[in-house]
Every structure is written in structure tokens, then in C-alpha cells.
Amino acid sequence: MSSQQHFTSIEKILSKLPPDDYQNVRNVLFGKATSRLDLPDAETKASDYDLELVTCRFKASPEQLRPPKIVRVGIFQHKLPLPPNTPIKEMRDGLFKLAEKAIETAAQGGVNVFCFQEAWNMPFAFCTREKKPWCEYAELAEFGPTTIFLKQLAKRHNMVVISPILERDEVHGDTIWNTAVVIDNYGDFLGKHRKNHIPRVGDFNESTYYFEGNTGHPVFQTEFGKIAINICYGRHHPLNWLMFGLNGAEIVFNPSATVGDLSEPLWGIEARNAAIANSYFTCAINRVGTEVFENEFTSGDGKPAHRDFGHFYGSSYIAAPDGSRSQGLSRDKTGLLIAELDLNLCRQVRDHWGFQMTQRLDMYAELLAKAVQSDFKPQIVKK
Q1: Strands 225-229, 251-256: parallel, antiparallel or unpaired by DSSP?
Q2: Buried-exposed string 96-116: b where 16+ CB fall within 10 A, e elsewhere
Q3: Rounded distance, CA 77 to CA 287, Å?
Q4: Which DSSP symbol is given to 128?
Q5: Which of 83, 140, 309, 369 has the greatest number of C-beta atoms within 10 Å?
Q6: What integer pLDDT is reported at residue 10 of this predicted model?
Q7: pTM value > 0.85
Q8: What is the pLDDT of residue 303?
Q9: For 85, phi and psi rounded to 5 degrees?
Q10: Which of 42, 59, 60 lies closest to 51, judged by CA?
């Protein structure tokens, strides 16, 4: 369906410019220059496993009283290794093998916190409105097969792993949720967060499957910093990003699944803007590839029925609180982005810009409290 499948990445297009022009344009588009990490062991693994590997280092200024607070994060985008209609057990096994390769590569690069894309262990079937067999992918967050599998890898590699899955809540009527599971570096279940905002646009019929989340805006304290997960559609809601910042997040991951014709012009802006506005790092992970389903479905827009969402355009990237950002992964390859962050940059940017100091939460809260009332009247001044 997508008409935007004909180029690999913005960076490759920009690199064709003369060197001086490239540097000037890149500085304006992507902010302060970052440097590349030299990770030969990870590069070897990535080559062996046919994974695209991009690396990046974000620096903070040296301080007199605080040592650097260095953490390495890995974000992974991938295509399905098998067609969407592959039997569930076979599909899961194929994805587990791919995940093991990705985490092993990340470990060779010294990654401390690793995050998958949204609903990483299944086809993104929420366009179809079919309940069978897709609901069978839903599993327990705490004790499901995906969590059990990843606990072993997290412990083995001393790595925090964020695993966005379709969760089945057997305690509450088999309710299904879109959930990110957080496993700490000891292989223990640390907690979970359920997707706050559910799209109802185009083929994204996700409300057919799960509700808006009920877990608030949790921030998870790990040995490698305070992390949070803003799942997919929540990136379109600035207040959703804000709440994670109010709860003390230093890194907010945005595991997503979105297609070119729908959202690509917004993709490079939203997570980066959130990093700037909230003085934390953001990690935007998008699915990649085109998933073709067995049965046709419609978008309710009068256009012909079709069998795919369109092209998931990848382009995963990481943004810093000073507005700088990494190179993105490509639009068409399975890949891993490893970035080294100095979390001291979060407070340094707050001190420099004063966004948190000058925000007016009391004023905003007062208007928000009024806006949710049925008798609300906007503050409009008329002649």
C-alpha cells in the first residue's frame, strides 16, 4: 500500500551532499554532532547474523562533583522471519531465535538496557479485526513464555530487557492489554506498563483487541538509570511524555509500529521534541517490513480492500535532552542501534534551559481540572 518504500534512509540521502553542506544541514536537522562507538565484537556478531548495526555516543560536560553516569542502550527493529499466517509456535520460535541473536549482539556492544519494538513476538495483526488466531498470542506478563525466555537472557548478559507483548490478564476476565514487560538485569520481573492511548485511525483497529492502559505512568528504577515506556500511539500525546518526566524518568522508550503513509513526517519530530521538552533521553523504535495477511480487510474509507497495513518504515533513533539525535536505522532492514548516554546531560540541560523550572504546572492543572467538566467554557475573549 505504501508509496514511500523507494529510499533507505534520510541519512543516506543527506550524505550525497558536499561535505561542508552535509555537516551544516545535519547540524540544523539533527542538532549537536554525536560520535560513533567503536564496537568491533558487536560489528562481527551483527555481520554474522545479518543485522544492520548503528552506533552513537552522546556526551555531557565534565562536572566537578558528579562522575559521568554512563549507560548503553540498545534498540532493536525487525521484520518477521516468517509469513504472518505461520503457526503460532513456529512463529514464536523463529522470533525467539532472532531475539537471542539481537541480545547477544547487544551484549557484545556492552548494552545495559535493551528494548524491542511494539508487539515484537507476533505479527502486527490489529488491522484485521480478526480474533482468531491473533488473540492466542496473548500471554501472561509475569510468567508467559516470552518473559520466561527473556529472563534467562537478561540474567546471562546482565541486561535490563523491555519486552512489549500482547498481555492476557487471566485474573480479570481474560482481558487483553498492550503491555511492556520490564525484566531487570538479574532476570527478575521488575514490572509492566500498559499502553495508555489506543489509536482509532485508518487500519489501526486496536480497540478491537485491548483497552486503554490502567497502570498510569510508572518509572522503573534500574541499576542503569530510571526508565519508562511510552508505547506507540502515546507519542502523539505531549502530556503522556510529560507524566513520565514528572515521575523522574531519565530515559523513555517508545516501542512502536507505524507505517509510512500514516505517520512518517511526524516520526523524527515527536520523540525528539519530547526529549527536549522533558530533559530526558528518548528511544524511538519502529517496526520494519510489510506484513501481508491471508484475508482482505478495509479501512472504512471507501478504498479497495487490501491485505497489508503498508510499509513499517523502521528508522529507529535516539534523541538527547539537548536536541541532538543519533543516525536512524534504515527503513527496510532488521537492525540494532547501540548508543552510549551520559545521564548527567539531563540535569545539565535543565540547568541551562530551565524548562522544568519555568513550567507552570499549577496553571495547567487548574485549566485541566476545568476542561474535564461537562460545563466547561473555554477562556475566549471576544469584542
Answers
A1: parallel
A2: bebbbbbbbbbbbbbbbbbbb
A3: 5
A4: S
A5: 309
A6: 85
A7: yes
A8: 85
A9: -85, 10
A10: 42
Strand ranges in the chain using DSSP code E only, listed in sequence order: 52-57, 70-77, 113-115, 160-169, 175-183, 189-194, 220-222, 225-229, 251-256, 281-286, 288-289, 292-297, 306-308, 312-313, 317-319, 335-342
284 forms beta bridges with 254, 317
Residues in the chain with pLDDT < 70? 1-5
Q: Three-class SS of residue 94?
A: helix
Residue 75 DSSP class = E
The 10s digit of each residue's pLDDT in 98-110 is 999 999 999 999 9
Cα dihedral 278, 74, 169, 95 sign: positive
Give the pairing of strands 317-319 and 281-286: antiparallel
Show Cβ contacts of residue 266 under 8 Å, excluding neighbours closer than 6 positions.
236
Q: What pLDDT is attached to residue 3?
A: 47
Helices and strands counted in the chain (H then E)? 10, 16
**Annotated catalytic sites, by residue?**
118, 195, 232
Cβ contacts of 310 within 8 Å, gap of 6 or more: 1, 2, 203, 259, 260, 261, 262, 290
Cell of 244: 513520565
Q: What is the DSSP letter of 211?
A: P
Give pairs for 31-36: CB < 8 Å, separation 24+: 31/320, 31/322, 31/323, 31/324, 31/325, 32/322, 32/323, 32/324, 33/324, 34/58, 34/59, 34/324, 34/325, 34/326, 35/59
